[in-house]
Amino acid sequence: MEDIISVGSNHNMGSSKGKKEDLYHVLHKVPYGDSPYVRAKHAQLVEKDPEAAIVLFWKAINSGDKVDSALKDMAVVMKQLDRSEEAIEAIRSFRGLCSKQSQESLDNVLIDLYKKCGKIDEQIELLKRKLKLIYQGEAFNGKLTKTARSHGKKFQVSIKQETSRLLGNLGWAYMQKMNYMMAEVVYRKAQMIDPDCNKACNLGLCLIRQARYEEAQLILEDVLNGKLPGSDDSKSRKRAQDLTKELRSMLPPPHLSDLLGLDDEFIKGLEQLMNEWGPIRSKRLPIFEEISSFRDQLAC
Predict the structure, then answer these.
(1) Separation of first and last alpha carbons in the chain
(2) Which of 141, 178, 182, 186 could bridge 171 with an S-S bond, Cβ 3.0-4.6 Å?
């Protein structure tokens, strides 16, 4: 009987220990095992030691241990340490060791790194290349959706959403080069595919920089009036309000007719009446001109 209790007790203790380990890995998002990659993730997520994590990620890459994930994760950690140039060189040098399926995610990391380093031309070139893959039907491995991850959560992304996102990034890159006409074209394409408030604000800014204030105002009003997805986002609304304020400071002072509250049709009617009268030779009305002429005849 004692032996049975002992065995059951050991089993419960082992089960409890296993559950604790499972909970530990779930909470810290750390994979199982003791390989270089696992130890690198432990240093990154649990010990919060990025420098040690980079050393271990290098070991994982050199030993062929989860190279796809190790290279991408190492580049992200390097970016956090302001070692973006080093991260770019690492991806360029070792992406050939990675699988075909990992190339898209490595490109996404590269785009962020180029943005961080101010390498706008490289960013534009890479974004165009990724968009070309979509047009040729080679993105997402030929599928219409893919599984993406953000802040530890997985979600589905459609090819339309990805196209719009890439176009938005391309528009922003053109804005950094002050090529507002090209940025406008790209943002309009993005909004046609998958509209949102953030890209609408950027499009509005492009138009403001081109002194096309009325067009910009209409777009920003759509954001403020809740006509676009994401209109309830406080940051987007705040940005639209700030841009509207900037826009109003650049507008010319209102015309006299606007101040008087006169509408366009009324003004046009007055102009038409004055044109029918022809050039006025005197400040007196035509009827008084006729009376004056008749009086002159009588005087003769």
Answers:
(1) 149
(2) 186
What region, left, alpha or beta, does residue 107 occupy, with left being phi > 0 and alpha being psi -120 to 50 degrees? Answer: alpha
Q: Under a CB-based contact definition with an 8 Å cutoff, are residues 210 and 180 in contact?
A: yes
d(CA 136, CA 16): 53
> Measured between alpha carbons, how far is 286 from 281 in angstroms, rounded to an integer?
10
CA distance linking residue 72 with residue 107, whole number of Å: 10
How many helices (H) and strands (E) would you count in the chain?
15, 2
Cβ–Cβ < 8 Å for 163, 189: no
| Helix, strand, coil tally for the chain in percent (to 5) | 75, 5, 20
What pLDDT digit, counting tens, does each position of 1-18 carry?
A: 444 444 454 545 445 444
| Reported confidence tier of residue 157, pLDDT bands at 50, 70, 90 | confident
For the record, the structure tokens of 38 come out as 């696992």
- State pLDDT tens for residues 257-266: 554 555 566 6
How far is residue 88's CA from residue 296's CA, in Å, rounded to a whole number? Answer: 96
* pTM confidence score: 0.70
Q: From residue 161, give the alpha-carbon distance in Å to each of 101, 142, 164.
A: 19, 15, 5
What are phi and psi for residue 157, nearest 5 degrees?
-120, 130
CB 270 within 8 A of CB 256: no
Residue among 74, 144, 67, 147 nearest 100 (CA)? 67
Q: What is the rounded (10 degree) CA torsion for 162, 122, 107, 143?
A: 40
Q: Which two tokens stand for residue 260?
A: 């008087």
Provide the β-strand partners of residue 148.
Answer: 155
Three-class secondary structure of residue 137 per DSSP: coil
Tokens for 68, please give them: 């796809």
